[in-house]
Amino acid sequence: MKNIKAIALLITVNLTTSYSADWPEWGGDGYNNMASSAKGIPLEMEPGKRKKGTEDIDLSTTKNVKWVAKIGSQSYGTPTIAEGKVLIGTNNESPRDAQHEGDRGIIMCFDEKDGGFLWQLVIPKLGAGKVSDWEYLGVCSSPLIHKGRAYFISNRCKVVCVDMEGMANGNDGPFKDEAKFMMTGGKTFKAGKGDGDIIWVYDMREELGVFPHNIASSSPKIVDGKLVVTTSNGVDWSHLNVPAPQAPCLILLDLATGELVGEEASKIGERVMHCNWSSPMVAKVDGKSTIFFGAGDGYLYSFDPKAKEDDEGFLVMPENWRVDGNLPEYRKDKDGKKVKYATFEGPSEYISSPVYHEGNVISLIGQDPEHGEGVGRMMSVNAKTGKVNWDYTEIERGISTASIADGLVYAADYRGRVHCVDVKNGKKAWVYDTKSHIWGSTLVADGKVFIGNEDGEVVILKHGRKMEKIGLVEFSAPVYASPVIANGVLYIATQTHLYAFKEGAKTASK
Fold first, then answer.
1. Reading across the β-sheet that carries 80-82, which strands appear in turn?
2. Which strand (E) or helix (H) includes residue 180?
């Protein structure tokens, strides 16, 4: 298995969503719209060639590269950028510290200015094998950066809050045992300035009984001072049994302490098909904070973040509505027989994140890439009522989050095609085939649509109702993460390197 972002200012100029500067969380802001108002993003980019016998990039062979940093060997999480720093999840196959050998999950922090390495947090493997912490996947979560802290889900199914300064300014917060957190097998080491500083940790396996399938993934959001987190609860090795059907698949944690302050009680776990990996989305609907979640049972949910105590004393998030992301024929055939999961014509869960746009929610269903291609569906739902506005079924299943700008929706399916449809009615404008599997999401900015694929290509299409390919950047490793823009710089993470592209940039290598 290969598996598996300061809050932006919403303005209404050209793009539906635009970002003032940083990209501090997955999707840019709470709405998850992969779009930016940035201008001057280069069309011509050359990532360069590796120096002979090394993994370092020969800067003389690059173009418009501000800096490039070596990360691990497998990197699936999209970088986030804020407060002058860049965070990304990866693995430990290019160790930064000789004290940490072997397979580990890693969160790396770099200087936004020049790509200089600042610190890393090392997370040992869970020790449960492929079923819950697949080898070499590293950390797949994109950290959320907020007021000097960063929040992410580790490969050990723990929600972790860290200090953005790392240990450089001392060991802050109530958590003091970083050395024990980072080591296994009875080994010891002394944390230094190059290590991460943990503020608090919430263990979803220990506290909730969650059973993560393959990897604990997804990225958190903030709503009304609380952290919204997907738990990654899923099936076991047999793919037939859910070990923890009563465990919540979406929870709320206190932002400052990590205390559990809410959970879903919609019985998603009883219906989960594979796992819960989709990142939630938050938006104001008629002035009321609302959480939207694409769940592992294939339903799109709307929840009220004001948790209320139920009859058993649990703090439960009220469910506003739910709508099936699957068409009826994906679940049952014409004879009423259940269609088998993980078949081409069968039902799917959500892995991509829902996107909010002008009172509606856009989402698409999908499955673990290991399951291959299959039927899909993208739909628009009224955010207040859950009524389906339109659906688009020419798209196959995918794990990519949509981009919306100037009345157009861009979304990619796993098969490798980028679909452009009208945001008002879902009618197709065009489809472009990259001819390689797509894991990441589209990014629309500066009149361009960027998308990476498994062949290590970043295809650049012209933003608009007429399809036109205007550029192609070829990397030496697959691009599974999504391109993002912060402060006028385009960030692209391959499996092995993180690139910062800027028009006319002078290069630096870290």
1. 80-82, 85-91, 104-111, 117-124
2. helix 178-182
3-state secondary structure 287-334: CEEEEEEECCCCEEEEECCCCEECCCCCEECCEEEEEECCCHHHHECC
Summarize the confidence of residues 321-345 as an average pLDDT: 97
CA distance 372 to 87: 30
Domain ranges of the chain: 49-501
Q: Report d(CA 313, CA 260) in Å as an integer.
A: 13
Contact between 344 and 373 (Cβ < 8 Å): yes
Distance CA 149, CA 268 (A): 30
Does the pLDDT of residue 16 top 50, yes or no? no
Q: What is the pTM of this model?
A: 0.94
Separation of alpha carbons 358 and 143, rounded Å: 26
Is the C-alpha dihedral spanning 221, 123, 55, 68 positive or negative? positive
Choose among 362, 357, 360: nearest CA to 385: 360
Q: Which of 131, 196, 209 is nearest to 163 (CA)?
A: 196
pLDDT tens per residue, range 18-46 = 444 899 999 999 899 999 999 999 999 99
Q: Six-digit token pair at 343?
A: 């078949």
Per this entry, what is the length of the chain?
510
The single residue listed with the structure tokens 């739910």 is 322
With residue 207 as reference, give the H or E element that holds it: helix 204-208
Pick the CATH number of 49-501 from 3.40.50.410, 3.30.300.30, 2.130.10.10, 3.40.50.2020: 2.130.10.10
Alpha carbon distance 443, 464 (integer Å): 13
Q: Indicate if the pLDDT at residue 7 is higher than 80.
A: no
**For residue 6, what pLDDT is reported?**
34
For residue 286, report the phi and psi dihedrals to the nearest 5 degrees: 55, 40
Q: Exposed (0-12), middle (13-18) or buried (19+): which is 467, by Cβ within 10 Å? A: middle
**What percent of the chain lies above the pLDDT cut of 70?**
95
Residue 380 near residue 360 (C-beta atoms within 8 A): yes
Segment 87-99 mean pLDDT: 92
Q: Is 269 helix (H, G, I), strand (E, B) or coil?
A: helix
Q: What is the H or E stretch that residue 408 is in? A: strand 408-412
Unique residue bearing structure tokens 């452009």: 420
